[in-house]
Specification:
It is a single chain. The protein is α+β, with helices and mostly antiparallel strands. The longest helix is centred in the last third of the chain and has 21 residues. It has five helices and seven strands, in the order H-E-E-E-H-E-H-E-H-E-E-H. Strands 3-2-1-4-7-6-5 form a seven-stranded mixed β-sheet, sandwiched between helices. The chain is 33% helix and 18% strand.
Length: 192
């Protein structure tokens, strides 16, 4: 199997989404930039599978120019494949992406507003605030466009009424940033 180490890392971190309470059961998704048969792309978690049941063959490779209709697999990629693809296309430094429905980030995102610079740790996301992408239905091009806009000069953002997304130079870095965003959101709700 191609990219077995990367596939296993995605499974490892998907299980951590559950064990750290960043995303319960099968919500959220994880991807890693990769290459298969000289094609640039990314490996991503499948749609609708509980993380504890994941096997390496469940992790789907998608090319940077591919649409879900081009995937030759009975297992479908996460419904959020589009913003993962678009982040990899627009952000050369993105090597891994973590999207979580973490409780505090989701609660704060329901207000559809950025988190102001109430704490210096806000800078971890890359700016003076943490932007909140405008609401759009999950899996849509509109949502992907909104996320890309909110990530301008940032490496993490909230997604209105949805949760958060973070990327990094490694899966460790992206996951840690997602944890930091959740902690910031928790502190922000207490501060409010």
């Amino acid at each position: 199997m191609k990219n077995l180490d990367q596939r296993n890392r995605i499974i490892e971190y998907s299980l951590k989404l559950n064990s750290t309470n960043l995303s319960p059961l099968r919500s959220g998704n994880i991807s890693l930039r990769g290459k298969e048969d000289d094609k640039e792309g990314y490996l991503i978690t499948p749609s609708g599978k509980k993380y504890e049941t994941l096997k390496p063959e469940d992790i789907i490779f998608m090319g940077l120019n591919e649409d879900v209709e081009n995937i030759d697999s009975a297992i479908k990629p996460s419904s959020e494949w589009r913003f993962h693809r678009d982040i990899y296309v627009k952000k050369n430094n993105a090597q891994a992406i973590v999207h979580a429905h973490s409780p505090h980030a989701t609660a704060v995102s329901s207000h559809g507003k950025p988190i102001p610079p109430f704490h210096y740790m806000i800078a971890l996301a890359g700016g003076e605030d943490i932007k909140c992408a405008d609401y759009a239905t999950f899996g849509t091009e509109e949502l992907s466009n909104n996320v890309i806009k909110a990530l301008e000069n940032r490496s993490a953002c909230l997604m209105s009424n949805h949760g958060q997304v973070a990327f990094g130079k490694s899966l460790d870095e992206a996951f840690e940033l997602a944890q930091e965003i959740e902690n910031i959101c928790h502190q922000y709700t207490i501060a409010l």
